[in-house]
Structure formats: C-alpha cells, structure tokens
Amino acid sequence: MAEAFLYRPTVRAVLIAWVGVSDLKGPEKAGTGDLGPIAQALAARSFDQVVLLEFFDKADHQKLLPGYIAWLRERTPAEIVERRETLRGPTDFGGIYEAARRACQEVLTQHKDATLTFHLSPGSPPMAAVWMLLGKTIFPAQLIESSREQGVKTAEVPFDIAAEFLPDLLREPDERLRAQSTADSPPAPEFKTIIHRSRVMARLIQRARRVALRNVPVLIEGESGTGKELLAKAIHQASPRKGKPFVPVNCGAIPASLVESELFGVEKGAATGVDAREGYFEAADGGTLFLDELGELPLPVQVKLLRVLQENEVTRVGARKPKRIDVRIVTATNRSVVDEVAAGRFREDLFYRLAVAVLKLPPLRERSGDVGLLVDELLKQVNHEAIGEPGYRDKKLSAGARSLLLTHPWPGNVRELLLTLKRAAIWSEGETITTEDVREALLAVPSTQRTDVLDRPLGEGLNLPDLLAEVARHYLERALDEAGGNKTKAAGLVGLPSYQTLTNWLQRYEVNR
Hints:
This protein is of the alpha/beta class. It has 4 domains: 3-161, Hypothetical protein VC1899 like domain (Restriction endonuclease-like) (Rossmann fold), CATH 3.40.50; 173-362, P-loop containing nucleotide triphosphate hydrolases (Rossmann fold, 3-Layer(aba) Sandwich); 366-441, Helicase, Ruva Protein, domain 3; 449-513, Arc Repressor Mutant, subunit A (Orthogonal Bundle). It has 22 helices and 15 strands. Strand 2 (49-54), helix 4 and strand 3 (79-84) form a beta-alpha-beta unit. The radius of gyration is 28 Å and the shape is elongated.
C-alpha cells in the first residue's frame, strides 16, 4: 500500500526515533488502541520520512522487528528508513550519541531544508537524553513524546546548552577514569594554541608531549589545513631546544633546481658571482627544522638528506668539507608516506629514518566536539584582526549560522573554517552573522578522485578488496548525489536491479547518505 509514496525528491518533515520494545508490541496490541509510541505519532502527525534507529540485544525482539516494519509501512505513506546500529548496550551513551548524530547528518546532507522531529518516548532513558541534548544544540529539532493516555504532544525542555560541551557529557566512564589518572601530570602551555576537547586530539597531544622530550625525528601526517605546522611548533616549544631556532620549510614551494642549495647552503665561488649562503639546515642548528610537504622532495635530494641524517653533517653546494650540525627534524605530509614508498616516489630507507615517531592529525570531521570551540576562538581572531578597519564591528553568530557551521563536514579542515568565518564576517552587514552569510561564505570544493585505478603498482602496497571498495563507494556516492537521494533512481544509474539491492551495497561499503 505504501509503495506509491515511498520515494520523494524532497523530504521536509522527518521523524527520527529509536525503536523500542513497546513499539514491537504494537501489531499485536493494535486492537486495544495501544499502537506503541512511533505508530501513535504517525497516526497523529504528518511526516514525509521516518528514520528508525534499531538496536535490540535480545533475539526475541530481533525476530519481531521485520514484522513490525512491514506493519508500520502499511499505516503510513511516509518513507521509512531503517538504520541498524551496534551498541554496547541500551545505556551506551557514547554509542547512542554517535548513531543519532550520524542519522541527523545523513538526513540534512540529503535534504538541506528538512525539519527534524525527535521522539523521546521509544527506547531507553539514555536515548531520550541524547535526543534532548542534540535537539537543543547541534541539530535544532522539535521534541515529541507520546502515551496511550495523553496522546502525542510536544515536549517542552526549558534549557539551552552550548553545543561544544555535548561530547564531554557523553564520554564513557573509562575515559573519565583515564582523565583522572593523568590529572596530576604537569601542564603543557606549549600546546595551548591547539584548541581541542575531543578524545582523539587529547590522545594526540598526550603523545606529542612525550615525543617532544625525546631527541628523535617526528613525522606528522594529516590532511591539508589540519594544523601540522602548529603541532610541529608546539613540539619544538615543549622540547629542550625551545630557546633555539624553529625553521619551517615548505618543500613544495621550492623549485626543484634550488632544493639542494636551499636546504644545504652554497659555498662562495660555487658559481660565478655566487657568495656563500647558509641553507635551512645551518639556520636551524641547535634547534628544529620543520620540513612540510615532505613528499615533494626530489629523489636525488632524498639521497643527500639521508646522509645528513646519518652523519649529522651537511655539505654546502660547491664545498669539499662537511660541517657538523645539531638539528632535530620534524617532517609533515598530507599524503601517506607508506603509499609513496610503495609507489617508488619516496626512499624506503629515508622513510624509516624520519618516521621514528609518527603522529597522525585527524581531520576536523573526526574531531567530535572541537568545531564549536574552534568557531569561538577563530571568530575572536577574525574580530581582533579587523580592529581599526573602517566601519567594522565585532561579529557574533546567529543560532542558525552556528548550527550550519557545526554540521558542515569541513573538507578543508581548520584552515577552511577560519577562511569561511572571515568571508562570512565580510558578507555580514550587521553585527550578527546570519545563516545566509555562512551559506554564501562556504565554498564548493571540487572532489579529487583518483584516476589511476588501473595503473597502480603491484606488490605489498596494493590491497585489491580496499581498491574495489573505493571504486564502489565512489560510484554509489555519485549516483546518490545525481539522483537527489532517490534510491530507486540511483540504483538504475549504477546498473543495480532494485532499491533493495542498492541498499545492500550501501550497507556493504558503509556509504551513509
């Protein structure tokens, strides 16, 4: 009966709820009027889409689920989307939060004009608590509750909470114990410029503090805009070399013909009219040399760099005698050096010399809870830098603008966030940056898909299952985008026979759209 209504190009009203045990009993109790919270809400209010989060740790309940979904589809013209979730249990706050957040993000990615409603009644009390927190912070939503006696009503929750504090409220007990165990560790003011609250960043900073005290090379991996130079500078400031020079070098910005002379220096008379000039290694003597975009170094220079690291001495271009140096090397790359080694673009022996300590900076989209903190601090920076500019007034964010910033995926990471705030401040005519100001400030970044899928080198670096999964995800995401989220149309675009087959492929390759 519901097939004619199942797929719509635009979804506006969306109900999101956990399926509870009382819902599963709805079909057998329907004759008594006890439909269960979700079916009761669908009978009382109109929705275009219903997103059901499903977790049952008892086999009896799992068996009832397919029959319940079929029964529910017969009762509503709304599209019903099932999301099977894995939790440690019905009180797993962290898992519940992540599952609910993913569901909301997927809806808003497919349908930017969607209005959300969260149902508080089904599921466990922690599930209701998470809906309240999300509905008052990151994903503004209407909250409803229902009972057989009072029917369906809007739940009034008279409080507001800052979104950036939400992940702290949902940390697991073992994380709190870990934090208590390290409460007596000395403060690290050198790392205060790295704004964070997320666990993944806290763990990274903890490791960076340890390695800062050791005189070993450090390799920092991370996407563009994640703050690799900021981390490298903090490591230098926290090290015994903090009073010595910190010399940053962008290897990708040096012409290939000049890399050797820029790094190692030039001896007087090396060429006609050439004066002696020290290179970056000599300039960093006693301190730290930060080599950014490491993968851009030409192979011949990599050979000479390896010798410098082995012998602790550098030979200028045109010189016969080497000069002793004492330099700590910190390198960074936005690529996987392991992949570069496998492709023959980076020397394996040099990689092992540089990768004594490897720190992987997570992208902003994986730093749950950090975006709100960064928005506040970066907006302060934008306001401070604009002091004295004609007609400028300090900017603040509207609730809608803040929500849009918190839910954006930030492919350009912290750098993109900062530049977006600068543009939004320029477009804003008043003191308040509006949602429209932020939307206009966001830039569409073209995707960079790999085109060498058929020409990758065979050997240890090639993983055929991963490669096939990469190709599948690429075409599945493209089809969903082109079809505007309509799964029937998307299935036809990639040659799959049905909506259900496409759904199976999406689950297999973990495409959440």
